[in-house]
Amino acid sequence: MHRSRLVGFIIDCQGQSLQGAAQFWGDALGMGVKALPGDEGSAYMELVGPAGGLHVEVQTVTHPSRVHLDIESDDIDAEVERLEKLGATRVAQVKSWWVMEAPTGHRFCVVHSSSAGFHQHAREWL
Amino acid sequence: MHRSRLVGFIIDCQGQSLQGAAQFWGDALGMGVKALPGDEGSAYMELVGPAGGLHVEVQTVTHPSRVHLDIESDDIDAEVERLEKLGATRVAQVKSWWVMEAPTGHRFCVVHSSSAGFHQHAREWL
Question: Dihedral (C-alpha) B27, A54, B60, B78: value to the nearest 10 degrees?
Fold first, then answer.
């Protein structure tokens, strides 16, 4: 048995200043902009505000700009296998997470569960 | 004075059966799939579950698959003008909403406020 849930989404911005891109999206959505510590801080900034407990982050990327979803799970291998049975495919393992592609063509990530709402909101999969 | 907030996001699926695309995303995210009434029902299905009061919908589209954000406002014209000052541009008016493009290259929509959380969570802009 493992658990997973939609944890949020990432606004991927190609060839942009991270600060500038995050400031636009923070202002546009009426949310605050928060720097993240450590290595993560060079690629990601968090948007803070009333998004219902979902994470919203802005990331600088080298591929074309897009928005991608993150699924968090307490067992990444089991969750990736569950999603493969639904028709998704593995694209690449990056650090501790998996990048996958949906049958609808969207890229998304499966990450380790770490959100405050995980235990309350995650679905159990047998 | 007008108000706006991030109301949710739409998973745009190119060349897919709406039912099939929505079923994949419902299963992947552990959310229910709900048909919508009227004309809207032919292009959109709603995903229902713990997404913190944000709307999550799946849409069939003819352009490449992507994910886009929706901003809701009680004054669309004022909100579009506010977003233009931040660097966004108008792409097209569709029915009652505006499609805009962010300086980061993302398309997003400005729609009439209709969510249950609007009055509680929207930001005021002078």
Answer: 160
CB A13 within 8 A of CB B104: yes
A52/B56 CB distance under 8 A:
no
Show residues of chain A in contact with B65, CB under 8 Å. Answer: 104-106
B63 touches chain A (CB under 8 A): no
- C-beta of residue A82 within 8 angstroms of C-beta of residue A76: no
Q: How far is CA B45 from CA A5, A83, B23, in A?
A: 19, 20, 9
CA–CA distance, B30 with B12 (Å, rounded to integer): 18
User: Complex ipTM, two decimals?
Assistant: 0.89
The structure's pTM equals 0.90
Interface of A with B in 20-59 (CB under 8 A): 20-21, 24-25, 27-31, 49-54, 56
Optimal mutation site among A11, A46, A48, A54, interface B, most CBs of chain B within 10 A: A54
pLDDT 10s digits, A44-54: 999 998 666 78
